[in-house]
Amino acid sequence: MDFSRVLRDRRTRRQLSQLELALRAGTTQRHLSFIESGRSRPGRAMVVRLAESLDLSLRERNELLLAAGYAPVYPESLLDDPVLAPVRAAIDHILRGHLPYPALVVDRGGDLIAANSAFELLTEGAAAELVGPGRNVYRLALHPQGLAPRIRNLAEWARHILAGLDHSTALRDELAGYVPELEPSAGQLGFAVPLRLDSSYGELHLMTTVTTFATAVDVTLSELKLEAFLPADPTTTEALITAHAARGAG
Predict the structure, then answer these.
(1) pLDDT at 115
(2) How confident is the model at residue 238 (pLDDT cuts 50, 70, 90)?
(3) 3-state helix vs strand vs coil in the chain, percent to 5
(4) Is 170 exposed, middle or buried (0-12, 13-18, 19+ CB in 10 A)?
(5) Cβ count within 10 A of residue 197
(6) What's the distance, CA 181 to chain centroid?
(7) CA-CA distance, 173 to 176, in Å (whole number)?
(8) What is the pLDDT of residue 188?
(9) Cα(202)–Cα(198) distance, rounded to whole angstroms?
(10) Fewest Cβ atoms nearer than 10 Å: which of 14, 86, 139, 168?
(11) DSSP secondary structure string for all residues of 109-175
């Protein structure tokens, strides 16, 4: 990759002027202009400062370093690497801590890493090939043999999912083909997009929160997302508690 072009592209995507980026990175606009025109080759430390100032992901920072001719700074470990054992233990602890509410952890592409037992209530009736570790949760949500037939506000929920798939054009195009051509109803749009899902315990109204490892210095860890489904009304709260108690009794 051409470093000058990549840097300029990253800056313009974030709607930053050369002066704004230069001030953030602790350099001058003139120097940054020379870098973007290819008249000056930045040192490794400058590339790292520019990447940090652009608030790039760790993966993108490594890519910028490679484009500049430097080795990546941030490691990318496999999740089963012993160095990430404390992370796996923390994930298990967090997932259990969210019970009786469903929670799961996905990787950068939306493939399932782990989920707690309450997540089974959301996936009931879905085709077996769509469920389980390594399966894509976005496909599970919108596939006709996944959750889609039970989602009462499919148009709204699908739009919420598709909006977060900018990095994966192929997956977004596939999932868009599953979504009905329906306009979101005004009554469903508020401070958050709820998930209205039919279940064996009645209709569930759920909100979601997403948590990341904000201080991660490993690419794999930085791209993990923990998504928790929280009840949006007392009826859903009671249903989730009842379902959790039934699983424990079983």
Answers:
(1) 96
(2) very high
(3) 50, 15, 40
(4) exposed
(5) 22
(6) 25
(7) 5
(8) 47
(9) 6
(10) 86
(11) T-BEEEE-TTHHHHHTT--GGGSSTTSBHHHHHHSTTTTGGGBTTHHHHHHHHHTT-TT-HHHHHHH
Run of H or E residues at 208? strand 202-212
Distances (CA, A) of 72 to 53, 82, 139, 149, 236: 17, 21, 32, 44, 47
What percent of the chain is modeled with pLDDT above 90?
74
Contact assessment for residue 53 and residue 21, using Cβ atoms and an 8 Å cutoff: yes
How does pLDDT run across 49-63, given as a tens digit for each residue?
999 999 999 999 999
pLDDT tens, position by position, 140-197:
999 999 999 999 988 888 888 888 776 667 888 888 888 876 565 554 444 567 899 9
Structure tokens at 127: 């085709």
As given in the structure block, the two tokens for residue 65 are: 């370093």
Here the tokens at position 43 are 């040192």
Rounded to an integer, what distance in angstroms lies between the CA atom of residue 95 and that of residue 74? 27
pLDDT value for 166 = 66
Q: CB count, 10 Å around CB of 128?
A: 9
* Distance from C-alpha of 203 to C-alpha of 116, rounded to nearest angstrom: 20
Sign of the CA dihedral running 56, 60, 61, 64: negative
